[in-house]
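Quick board copy: two proteins, each given as sequence then tokens.
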Amino acid sequence: MSAPAVSLAKPADDPAGATGRGGRLYVQRAELVLAFADRRPLAALGLAPDPLQQVAAAMASVRTEAGEQAEVVIDLVPVSERALARRRRRLLAQARRRGPSAYGERLAGGLWGAGLAESFSSAWSGGGSGRGGAGSRLPRMTDVREGVGKFEPGTAVFALQLLLRTRAAHPQAALARMHQLLAAFAVTGGENYLKARTPRTRGAVAAFDRRFASGEFAPARRQWVTVPELAGFLKPPTARCHAAGVVRSGGLVPPAPADLPVYSGQRDLVPLGAVVYPDGVERIGAARVRDLLFALVLGKSGHGKTESALVQCIALAHAGFGTWFLDPHGEAWVRAKPYLAHPDIAPRVWEINLARSEPDQTVVSWNPLSMEDRSLGDVQEVVRSVVEGIAAAQDWGDSAPRARTILARAAQSLALLNLQAVAAGSPDAQCTLFQLRTWLTDEDWRALLLPKLPPRVRAYWEKTFPSLAKDAVPTVTYAIDRLDTSRSLQAFFGSPRSAYDVRQAMDESKVVFVCPSGSESDALVSCLLIHDLHRAGLSRQDTPREKRATFWAWGDELTALDASSKGFLAAIAEQLRKYEVRFTGMTQMALRLSAITRQALLQNQSLLATCAADFDEAAFVARRWNGHVTPETITDLPKYHYVMSLNLDGRRTTPFRVRGLPVEEIYAHYDNPDGVPDLDRAIDTNLSRRTAGDILAALEDLDGTVLSHHLGLPCAPADGADPTTVLN
């Protein structure tokens, strides 16, 4: 009779040279049978400790490379209720012949009369007097339980066949593995226990191997077991099974929603990664564009957060959306370039790489004080942007009111001068951030330009500023001095004409990658960039809602970004949804974010994801999922695997597993490394990039150029000359 089998094994092919003398393997066989009558139960094994711990440990010690093998086969056949009832009647009859007992001693008395079986049958079936008559009394239930043992009504019972077999190139090794397996099953000992029976004859060995290979059910003796006796060996290993050779499930995580969209390149979907759907098939899951507003991605470094963001950025760029990716290390941009090197995307691509500083390298410039395409009414926005960005990066707060005032007045003055230069058709004569230092420290230069300003602005510099303490000016110029230590930042901020305009990128769906320089001024640069992103988003108030193109932004290394942006990240999460700006932040440690940023992102996030994390971080995320996932599950996530939840059709999903997909796997059809040189030339055209050497050379003479323009002189002073001597 065949039977379903549960097999635990660590098999291996017989490698060359692994067998014993004559090319044979030594085999040990054993069948485990109940030592006493099967009505007496084995120990009911719980989950702590896991009964499979010893079995898994025995399997782990098997040296498969040496040809060793250990196998356990458990065959179970359900016992029918009719056969079980007959067994109970026979056991009760035997108990009647033995008579009643108490405390292990047989008792005399007439309680065990001829109508005993009928009385029990009547009692178990719910009533009736049976042939014992109305005056018959049932014996004590303790005697009934002792009579039928573990086969009480309502118990599921199975017939058992348990076979063990080990192989090794040395007989002692095979015997040692068998002893390990026998020790693992010794934990079942209770009122009954399992003892080993070894086939001795050639026929017995052949019968054993036949049963082992075919599943033929022919145990050496009848042995019936209940579910509690063997359930510990039939379940998967639990978290308490600590053997190294156990394949882990990774913890309990709810399944993915059945209606989760499947990504195949649709414009209205954002790819998430590989997801196992309820039908067991792995597909690329996706979020809907309309549902995904703000996202927070957490977890350890090197576990795929940036890669996942890059996949989404490339997908949305090819779908025609505008994107902005702040890449502190520059690695994401290097990986993305071959997948964006296509003629239909190249005209939209911007690269702001602040790590470049060689004189012949082409770079883009950004002048936050530029007034090109702006009016007098925009001066206050320019001033606010510069002051708030520098003040936040310097962490002035409310403790430096004089420095903020001086910086605001200086930015206002230079913005008004720039407005005049642009109106006169000389945008190359505009001041940059570096002219803030000249304005504050060079009294002669400032005095020559003051007559070009309105009286109310001029009055501040002539009457109020001289009376301020001299230590307020170095506080302001300190930020500019920091920028001046980096050639790449000199090139980025040192050109009068600005090619980088994030508002233009939003409106024209540009694909923007920003790679800071890695210098000690990164905090200041990042703060200016984040504040500019926030300002540009708010400025879209002048565009009707239906005409605002959706713009996606990613910020990597969010903890460092938050430390420098001083609240602007929270403002983005709280305010920019109305203006079709979406933001995704990635960080290793959410607990190190400022409280205001962390609260704003969690309150407004429509996607929360984490890869493996430290226990404290994992517990922080797990609490957001209301017990659907434990912190231990998060800490044990494999590399490039995530647990995430998102908004789907207006409702929040339970968390589910996602396997991250690398860019080269999901976008192999976009890979075009041969098109990278053409992409670089397109970026030069898109941003009017100039060589760093040309920008730095012009910056050396910019003070004189500005002065010459506003004083009506024909040319700038010669290199190294005092600009005030031009008037003499």
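And the next:
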Amino acid sequence: MRTHHCNEIRDFHIDQAVTLIGWVNSARDHGGVIFIDLRDREGLTQCVFHPDENPEVSALSHTLREEDVVQVTGRVSKRLEGSENAKIATGAIEIVATGLTIVNKADVLPFQLDKELSNEDLRMKYRYLDLRRPRMNKNIRQRSVITSAARRYLDDSGFYEIETPILSNPTPEGARDFLVPSRLNPGRFYALPQAPQQYKQLLMVAGMEKYFQIARCFRDEDLRADRQPEFTQIDIEASFVNQNDIIGLVEGLLGSMFKAGLGIDVPASFPRMTYADAMDIYGSDKPDTRFEMKITDLADVFATTEFKIFRGILDGGGVVRAINAKGFAIITTGQMNRLNEIAVQAGLPVKNLAFIKLENGEYKSPLWKIFTDSEKANVVDKLDLAEGDIVFFAAGSRDSVSTILGRVRSECAVMMELNNDSTKFNFLWVVDFPLLAHDEETGHWAAVHHPFTRPHPDDIAKLEAGDYANVRAVAYDVVLNGYELGGGSIRIHEKELQAQMFSVLGVGPEEQQIKFGHLLDAFRFGAPPHGGLALGLDRIAMLVAGEDSIREVIAFPKNNKGADLMAHSPCQIEHKLLREVYVQSTYKDPKLAAEKAAVQ
């Protein structure tokens, strides 16, 4: 239906006859001469309809409006001098139309496609229109480009692309499963996979050695800007590898994706930081290292303090630490209230953060008059406190202080716009995660990553001795600008060690056999050492596109309530269909109840 796309024609096509098809991006009437910008996914071409060139075609062009689908035949001509448009690739030429076919008329649009729209629900309802906008077209194109680059890289590295089941069993991945009733097996359910974890390990037992998959994953959890109920990850597993092998592979993979998507070269290798250091320095296991504002320990400053609060915490084995938000002494009352709210949510036991700020040569803080002259001098020196700075303090257990100051640091960065540079890419590996975390509510131990993660070889004795809090994992996360791009580990491949790990997590022998018998049985038959990693494709695409929500790089996302407003999903299911899969709903919709009551 066309000879060229709308971003293809150049000077060397002048005097050629061409046919284009696409949407009317805009239409302008200049004294009876109609100019339209014709658009397809590749770009724009200006088409001109002269009354004296073809009166019938010109008359028809007067009926055009935005988003009509039209086919234009004409001759390529050089634009008049001074009328060129340097903003578009086809800006030196235009098509003098000799033929026009209106393929489909468009109704009045619910919103303008050339303007940003703050009403996200309206965008989701008419997502097929939202995707026509240049920004969204670019985002989806970039996602396709980086996905193709990932496939090429892994294929060139000797990986097989293998699909794993969507209908499976529930897996312990840290979130609720989406359940699917089985009609052929009454009373039984499938679960949609949170990740293909067990299947990819079984593929290693099967001798595939190198597997990858662009995998759809599902988690029934609360949503946020970088989370959806269904998401896509680049899932990788390999046999006969160690941590360095996986890290090197993923560095090359990410390099190829960012080169394809943005045309930039990222470092061949990324810096590494232990989990303990990340929490100590940044208060986060996915720190944004584009800015400083590091957490500073003040135990030596207050080693002999007589300030009762600090004295009691330090004597009890706690810490006193602080961050300097340089240049942020101009903080507003609203911003300070927000920081206090975040600190309390993170575990601050009092309502307000302790602070000191230096403004107009004056130290402003209730704490300042409590500190001794020596303590004041040491605080100023150690935190590099200068005019215009504000320092935030936290005291308590090491873990709680790290979490509080980490959250405050991140929010300060947002307020100070320190993390707005979407052209700076600070990659980082966080390694040596703890293997286990203690759940204070249940009193049980839980896997930090998942129960198939291998304990650090130097800490096996601690695991056997029950010193679970100090066992590290051979686990690693790749981080970019405060986002976790992906995480992985070297896996357990021995039946006995895996069974021991399940036992630590409170999964007894009988339950192990029911839930994981297939995996434990597989490990009996010569399971190779193996490990891998899963990258969040949605987050990578978001960062490549310079967006701050993964909804902007997913063609048809759910809104923040997990709903597809365009397709009206989720929806109610007729009783007959539920009965066929042996499901009975106990939920009573208040709207339906009200409607029935009104009718009666």
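Board note added afterward: The chain has three domains: 11-104, 138-273+427-553, 291-415.
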